[in-house]
Specification:
Strand content: 15-25%
Protein name: Aspartate aminotransferase family protein
Keywords: Aminotransferase, Pyridoxal phosphate, Transferase
Structural class: alpha/beta
Oligomer: single chain
GO biological process, one term: biotin biosynthetic process
Family: Belongs to the class-III pyridoxal-phosphate-dependent aminotransferase family.
Largest sheet: 7 strands, mixed
InterPro entries: Aminotrans_3, Aminotrans_3_PPA_site, PyrdxlP-dep_Trfase, PyrdxlP-dep_Trfase_major, PyrdxlP-dep_Trfase_small
Helix content: 40-55%
Shape: globular
Number of helices: 16
Radius of gyration: 22 Å
């Protein structure tokens, strides 16, 4: 890519280290500079427009350029641009948002605690779970179970929970207290002749076997996304949650539902917890909480979690944890307005209405010889591409497809060879068809080239 010496592209290469990128390739190829966005579209610095098929990073629920969120941020910046929630201090937006989230929670919750990203929310959940175990006089109960292919973030603790190799390699992760159990991906993990229901039961049995092998008294919590996101949009098989949750209850293990991607309408209900009738003790929230207009995340904890923590903080004299930006007034004000928009415009109802078209078009991608599986629910899905016989290594075909998508005006994301689709919740039916028209055309071009 030819760059002018003082262009944004050249300065980006010179000064910025990027997430989820090959740094040497970055030096050679540079970045796509996105300059503005409106609705489901973004525009690069040259004026080319793209359908943002990933809602940014699974997150811009109400679309780009929503003036009500800009105005909410401006009003709050003028009134109180920053304050904190340390040492018995607070401010209106954090109080109102905490109250709103507790009211919205699909299962009884006691308190909200604010952080700045999904990673921080899950990292804090681990710390609070350990703190609670000590408060209960159970110092040995510190192990956490998550799942292979699960995604929970990139801090030291949350990256350990994440069950993806590239989040561990060369980082000396995962931490020894973190264990991983079977991924609920039926196609790749099933045994010959095993039905979805039988596979789901085996996943639950694998979980119980791991608990028993480690000692139930050492297991503190189980972290899981209702639908796996960055692990390739893995939708749980029939009967999975009905089989898994009783195992957790049997051994008194806390259940943390990571709603960072699923929360606020993505699966066709306000929360994935509702879609799958989950009963979590903790919920972690981010992304669509503010449509990512401001960095904010939250944990909701039930009373079973809260009371021992409160007792321990009283015993010690302080809960020694917090972030400068926890419950930031501007972020909280934007999140409140974002939730109002989601409710007033009935975006959850819109997802239910438009999901059949989305899922039908997603399934239609299977007509391409490269596609070995499509999977999804609500307005989230993935098309898995075959690399055996087509690509030199896993991820190669996904990378090629991603480049063609981009060239033709669609931003997707290949997670290995799984092409993901997660557009803003405001997407219209005609735009869903536009998005999948580009996807079909792009996959045909990739297949023809091979």
């Amino acid at each position: 890519m030819a760059q002018l010496p003082n262009s944004l592209e050249a300065r980006d290469i010179a000064f910025q280290l990027h997430s989820y990128a090959d740094a040497r390739r970055q030096e050679e190829a540079g970045s796509l500079v996105i300059e503005k966005g409106e609705g489901i579209y973004v525009e690069d610095i040259s004026g080319k427009r793209y359908i943002e098929g990933m809602a940014g990073l699974w997150s811009v629920a109400v679309g780009f350029g929503e003036k009500r969120l800009v105005d909410a941020a401006t009003r709050q910046m003028e009134k109180l641009p920053y304050y904190h929630t340390f040492t018995y201090k607070t401010h209106g937006p954090s109080v109102e948002l905490a109250e709103k989230l507790i009211e919205m929670a699909p299962v009884p919750m006691s308190k909200a605690y604010f952080t700045n990203s999904g990673s921080e929310a899950n990292d804090t959940a681990v710390k609070l779970i350990w703190y609670r175990s000590n408060a209960l006089g159970q110092p040995e109960r510190k192990k956490i179970i998550s799942r292979v292919r699960g995604y929970h973030g990139v801090t030291i603790a949350s990256a350990s929970l994440t069950g993806l190799p590239n989040n561990h390699r060369s980082f000396d992760l995962p931490l020894p207290q973190v264990l991983h159990t079977t991924s609920p991906h039926y196609r790749t993990m099933k045994k010959d002749g095993e039905s979805e229901t039988d596979f789901a039961r085996r996943c639950a049995q694998d979980l119980e076997d791991l608990i028993l092998a480690e000692g139930p008294e050492t297991i503190a919590a189980f972290f899981a996304e209702p639908v796996m996101g960055a692990g390739g949009v893995v939708v749980p098989p029939e009967g999975y949650w009905e089989a898994v949750q009783p195992v957790l209850k049997k051994y008194g293990i806390l259940f943390v539902a990571d709603e960072v991607i699923c929360g606020f309408g993505r699966t066709g209900n306000m929360f994935g917890t509702e879609t799958y009738n989950l009963q979590p003790d903790i919920m972690t929230l981010s992304k669509a909480l503010s449509s990512s207009y401001q960095p904010i995340s939250a944990l909701l904890i039930n009373d079973t979690v809260y009371q021992p923590i409160a007792d321990e903080s009283h015993k010690i004299g302080v809960l020694g944890h917090g972030y400068t930006g926890s419950g930031h007034p501007v972020a909280a004000a934007v999140a409140l307005e974002n939730l109002k928009i989601i409710e007033e415009r009935d975006l959850v109802g819109h997802v239910k209405e438009i999901a059949p078209t989305f899922q039908k078009r997603l399934a239609g991608l299977a007509a391409n010889p490269l596609v070995v599986e499509t999977r999804g629910i609500g307005l989230i899905g993935a098309a898995e591409l075959a690399w055996e016989g087509f690509g030199d290594t896993p991820g190669a075909i996904g990378g090629k497809a991603n480049a063609v998508f981009l060239e033709k005006g669609l931003i997707s994301r290949n997670m290995g060879d799984a092409m993901a689709f997660c557009p803003p919740l405001i997407i219209a039916e005609a735009q869903v068809n536009d998005m999948f028209d580009i996807a079909e055309e792009s996959l045909k071009a990739v297949a023809d080239s091979l």
